[in-house]
Write a structure and sequence with these properties.
With 333 residues, the chain is α/β, with parallel strands linked by helices. The protein contains eleven helices and 13 strands. The chain has a domain of 201 residues: 3-Layer(aba) Sandwich (Rossmann fold). A seven-stranded parallel beta sheet has the order 3-2-1-4-5-6-10, with helices on both faces. Strands 7, 9, 11 and 13 form a four-stranded mixed beta sheet that branches.
Length: 333
């Protein structure tokens, strides 16, 4: 018998791709959107989706939307990797309080199972030996003071409270996600800026990268097979930023990064560039907070997701090529 499936964050990158995959099944698929949300990422399939109005930061708007829903994918969130303190309120409201509201709406309305889409920043940073983190790693992002990571960690605490109160919920932690549909240029910002020669240097750290479709498959399999209260890292290759830059340069046909740059030097260079009002000549990814994060090794092991969820692997170059071709086709470069 078909179930009623609700997706929060359906207007975003991962949520919109998840929506498309869910529509390939027999269930009734619902998208929770705010009344002013842009539906461009799934406008071509809007006739197949049942759109429900609601705002995760306003719990009074969720009761009607969650009534009668069987399963929930909570993919809504706010991503901000900069250092501006005026973003803290929005990060707190959406990532922490919003998750609390969604979990409570699930409990209040008898939702049978849910998946919470978190982030690898809620897991931690690799130790100095470069050994990839797994789901049991100690959270140590407080050393960097990235408030986004703090809110993703706290969002998982809200999920655990809901699980303790009887909700059947699983957590997934996607890595750095590339793929078609990234209109907000999260990971895709690196593709765009390398293409436009705005990245003349690279940080000395590394990152775990994965394709959006593999993440979507992992999210859906977490719903099917994931153990209640457990978290699953959804990642792929662990690459230094030089290696990642070389792949993007090869795909885009643009010369690779020129110079390695340590964080202390990057801080001084950023101040000089800002003083000269030349920031627009460089990638928006070049800010002190982002460069501080990129100077660490965000390496992760997805062995648990491979073992328990059947997560698949493919070289990230395939994903970057698909994303690059999609950007060109859509005229976004």
């Amino acid at each position: 018998m078909p179930e009623k499936i609700l997706v929060t964050g359906a207007t975003g990158f991962i949520g919109s791709r998840l929506l498309r995959s869910l529509l390939q099944g027999d269930d009734d698929v619902y998208a929770l959107v705010r009344n002013r949300s842009k539906l461009g990422l799934f406008s071509d399939i809007i006739d197949k989706v049942q759109v429900l109005e609601g705002d995760i930061t306003r719990p009074e708007t969720l009761a009607a939307a969650f009534s009668g829903i069987d399963r929930v994918y909570h993919a809504a969130g706010y991503t901000y990797m900069g250092g501006s303190s005026n973003k803290k309120g929005k990060l707190q409201a959406i990532n922490v309080e919003g998750t609390r509201n969604v979990m409570q709406a699930c409990l209040d309305n008898g939702v049978t199972r849910a998946v919470h889409v978190s982030s690898i920043t809620a897991v931690g940073i690799s130790e100095k030996d470069g050994k990839p983190c797994d789901e049991s790693c100690r959270w140590n992002f407080d050393d960097i003071e990235l408030y986004y990571a703090e809110t993703k960690r706290r969002s998982e605490e809200e999920v655990k409270l809901a699980v303790n109160n009887g909700l059947d919920c699983v957590i997934v932690n996607p890595a750095f996600v590339f793929g078609a549909g990234d209109v907000n240029f999260n990971a895709g910002r690196l593709i765009k800026d390398v293409y436009h020669k705005k990245v003349p240097f690279y940080p000395l750290g590394g990152v775990c990268v994965v394709d959006v479709e593999i993440v979507v498959e992992g999210i859906m399999r977490a719903m099917e097979k994931g153990r209640t209260g457990e978290r699953y890292i959804l990642g792929g290759e662990n690459l230094t930023f030089r290696e990642l830059g070389d792949i993007i340069s090869r795909v885009t046909g643009v010369g690779r990064f020129a110079l390695p740059l340590s964080y202390p030097v990057a801080e001084k260079l950023y101040k000089l560039i800002s003083f000269l009002h030349a920031n627009n000549r460089f990638s928006k990814l070049f800010n002190p907070t982002m460069f501080r994060v990129a100077s660490e090794f965000l390496y992760f092991s997805s062995e648990k997701a491979v073992r328990e969820l059947g997560l698949r692997f493919e070289p990230i170059e395939h994903s970057i090529r698909r994303a690059f071709e999609w950007y060109k086709k859509e005229g976004l470069l």
